[in-house]
Structure formats: structure tokens, C-alpha cells
Amino acid sequence: MSGEAISDAERRACLRLARTSNIGPVTFAGLLARFGTAIAALEAVPLLARRGGATQPLKIPTAAVANRELDTLGRLGGRLLTVLDADYPRGLAALDAPPPLLSVLGSPGLLARDMVAVVGARNASALGRKLAQILATDLGKAGLVVASGMARGIDAAAHEGALATGTCAVLAGGVDNIYPPENAGLYERLKAEGAIVSEMPLGQAPQARHFPRRNRIISGLARGVAIVEAAEGSGSLITANYALEQGREIFAVPGSPLDPRAKGTNRLIREGATLTESAADILNALSPIIGRAFREDERQPSFAFAPAGDGGIEREADRVRARLAELIGPAPVEVDELIRQSGASPAAALTVLLELELAGRLVRHPGNKVSMA
Prior knowledge:
Blueprint: H1 8-18, H2 25-35, H3 38-51, H4 63-75, E1 79-82, H5 90-93, E2 101-106, E3 115-119, H6 126-141, E4 145-148, H7 154-162, E5 167-170, H8 184-193, E6 195-198, H9 210-221, E7 224-227, H10 235-245, E8 249-252, H11 263-270, E9 274-275, H12 279-286, H13 311-327, E10 333-334, H14 335-342, H15 346-358, E11 362-365, E12 369-372
Parallel strand pairs: 3-4, 3-7, 4-5, 5-6, 7-8, 8-9
Antiparallel strand pairs: 1-2, 2-6, 10-12, 11-12
């Protein structure tokens, strides 16, 4: 990340680049590593997509569209944080790769503090909601911000418990989209007393495919994730899986074997999650890492790209492009294995993969794997 404030032009370019078709967090980070700035990357992506075999032009938002979103967010009292901003959340900055953008309403300063996520079932029991609220209240009194997803049930109870001390809601739709509608009152209080964040465009209604992305941000912001009630296959367990991938601590509240809402949490405990009955269990586990860096290097992940304009890399990419496309099939394969079998340098191989993804021909998978679309 940058240690300085970025220009309005670079912020607008970040927004346009992140909203361009076929560009996700990994591709965005790779483009910044390759070209140095979002402005330069934005100029380069049409050519890269054509090299990758694109048959249709990329859909790149115009400067006017970006300006409208920034102006509307400003009128709402919000701010657009990019991964280049010095005050971009440290936990998210340590991810591989970070969400390029965050729209923020409320108090951005809360994002700089240590957080614990408290999540759980939407159809929560009365006792589950009560415990979630108590956990959040006690974590807040200990100086931690409580993150959750503003869903009904456990999420809403956690936000309520931490409003007085600091809570952050991560939404699956735009920050201006209140979902579920029944939480409109909570939304207004979060906007006034807490923080609301989303990586989605303004006006975006939440869709099923957006919730895993929201859950990745919830766990990424936090030092640990506490799950109060969660049935097998629930979104809360998706959050727990992301937390494990991100190296976060997992806390789970035990429940009756007769309650389906305890199946997920009880399994997490069997698999090594910290059995949690009170905030003290969470605080005792997290106390050694509170205030420390999420990782030794809290900047963006490094990519093996040569600086733009390196003709040697471009020529090598031309030589290995066909070979790499041949090696990639419908089944996910590790990028390191592609580099080994192709004989290409990492910089050339990553350049070709970037081109294929921009062309809509490549799909990325967890574990640094790719496949052909």
C-alpha cells in the first residue's frame, strides 16, 4: 500500500479498473504490480485482453460513471477507500489478494482498530441472540470493534451489543442498500454510531453470489471469528473457512446436539476451534496478537512481474503464450505447476495468465489454481 494520499485521478482510475469486466482482486493486484498505477493499468487492459484472445471489448466504466458514484457516495457522507490508501484496513491489506475498493459510511476510524467478528444463524434462538449480544458488549468494553454482516438473528444482536463501543457491518450489496429491510433502524444507527462497508457498487442489490465475498471481508477484517449458532452448510461456516485460510482464530459456542443450529459450531470445536462460553475465552486467545501486525509485511502481496515496458518479458510471453494455453484445461491446476511445465519465467507466465483472465478465458480458484473458462 501507499503511505501517501492518492490523487483524485488515481482514485477514479482504481474505481474504473476494479469495476471493469473480468477483473477481480487477484487480477487488480497483478495489474498494479505490473504497471505501478491504476491509471497506467487502465490504459493497458484493452490491449492485454486482445492478446489473451478476447472476442468482445472489455466493459470499462467511463470517467463520468466513476465520478457519479464518487459524488453520490460523498453526498451520503461516505468515502471510497482503495487498497492504495494508507488507512486501508490492515487485516484486509494482508490478504492475498485484498478487495481493491471499500465504500465506507459512518466512522472510517473504526477500521483501523482491532476487530473480532461475531456471526451466526439468521433463524437464531433467543438464547443464541442473547449470548451474541453479551459477547459483543464485553468484547467492546475490552477495546475491540465487533464486525458482522447485519443479517437478522446473531449478526443483528452482535451489532446491537457493540454499538456503544464500536461495530462494523459488512454488506453484500451496496452500502446504500438496506438488507434485510427489517434492519433499517439498525442500519441508521450503524451509519451514525458505527461503520458500514461494502466492496459492491452503490445501488447494488445483494445476490447469493455476493455473500461469500462479504464473508471473506468480515473474516479478513478481524483477528478472530466467533460463531454462535450455525447449521451445516450455512454462510457462517463459509466465514469460518475463509478465516482458516486467512490464518485467523476460530471460536465456536457449543450447543445441544438436538439443535440443528449447533451442528456446525459443535463440529468446529471437534476440529480445533476454541470452545467459547464468554468473551474471556476470546480475549485470552487473542491477547498475544492484539496490536501486532497481521503479517510481517502488511503491504499488497508481491507478484513476480517485471516493470511495464520490459521488452524481454513481452517477447518471452509471446513465445510461451500458446504453450501455457495448451497446458491449462477445464480442471484447476496450480500456477506453480504451469510455470514448471512451461519452462517460462514467473513474470512471463503471470503476464500470459493475466491476459487470459482479462479475455474472459481463465477462471481462478482457491489455492492459487486456474482453469480455462
